[in-house]
């Protein structure tokens, strides 16, 4: 045995018997696969509950649709907007807009921040939210510019 081999053996024996080195040994962590931590059955049940909740939400939303007669529609100039109350609650308002001679109505509250859109600006066929400049089409309510992701009702 040469000098280097003896030195390595001595260091190894010192490390094995030293209490200080025992304290700094990292525990061996066994990793479990993701599919074992999150069972498939619970994932399927979550998807089922989510789809059930969404279907109930849209079913009740469709039941809330009603026809409302607008009295002051002749007073609206082209490019002008007004909020119209259609229900009992304070939040039951729609935004009525006259654009190129046609009347359009969308939800009055921004889907991103909940700001009323009646005090906003109409630019071409888009209503711009005053809080974060999210833009919605007045024709179909779809978001045109971020940060809004959901369409107006």
UniProtKB/TrEMBL annotation:
<protein>
    <recommendedName>
        <fullName>Rieske domain-containing protein</fullName>
    </recommendedName>
</protein>
<keyword id="KW-0411">Iron-sulfur</keyword>
<feature type="domain" description="Rieske">
    <location>
        <begin position="64"/>
        <end position="153"/>
    </location>
</feature>
<dbReference type="InterPro" id="IPR017941">
    <property type="entry name" value="Rieske_2Fe-2S"/>
</dbReference>
<dbReference type="Pfam" id="PF00355">
    <property type="entry name" value="Rieske"/>
</dbReference>
<dbReference type="GO" id="GO:0046872">
    <property type="term" value="F:metal ion binding"/>
</dbReference>
<keyword id="KW-0408">Iron</keyword>
<keyword id="KW-0001">2Fe-2S</keyword>
<dbReference type="GO" id="GO:0051537">
    <property type="term" value="F:2 iron, 2 sulfur cluster binding"/>
</dbReference>
<dbReference type="InterPro" id="IPR036922">
    <property type="entry name" value="Rieske_2Fe-2S_sf"/>
</dbReference>
<keyword id="KW-0479">Metal-binding</keyword>
């Amino acid at each position: 045995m040469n000098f280097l081999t003896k030195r390595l053996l001595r260091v190894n024996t010192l490390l094995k018997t030293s209490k200080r080195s025992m304290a700094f040994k990292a525990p061996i962590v066994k990793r479990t696969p993701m599919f074992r931590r999150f069972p498939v059955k619970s994932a399927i049940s979550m998807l089922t509950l989510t789809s059930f909740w969404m279907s109930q939400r849209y079913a009740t939303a469709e039941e809330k649709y009603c026809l409302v007669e607008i009295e002051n529609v002749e007073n609206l100039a082209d490019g002008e907007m007004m909020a119209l109350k259609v229900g009992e609650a304070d939040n039951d308002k729609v935004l009525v807009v006259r654009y190129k001679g046609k009347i359009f109505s969308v939800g009055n509250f921004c889907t991103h921040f909940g700001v009323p859109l009646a005090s906003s600006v109409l630019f071409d066929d888009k209503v711009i939210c005053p809080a974060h400049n999210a833009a919605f089409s007045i024709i179909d309510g779809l978001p045109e510019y971020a940060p809004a992701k959901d369409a107006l009702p």
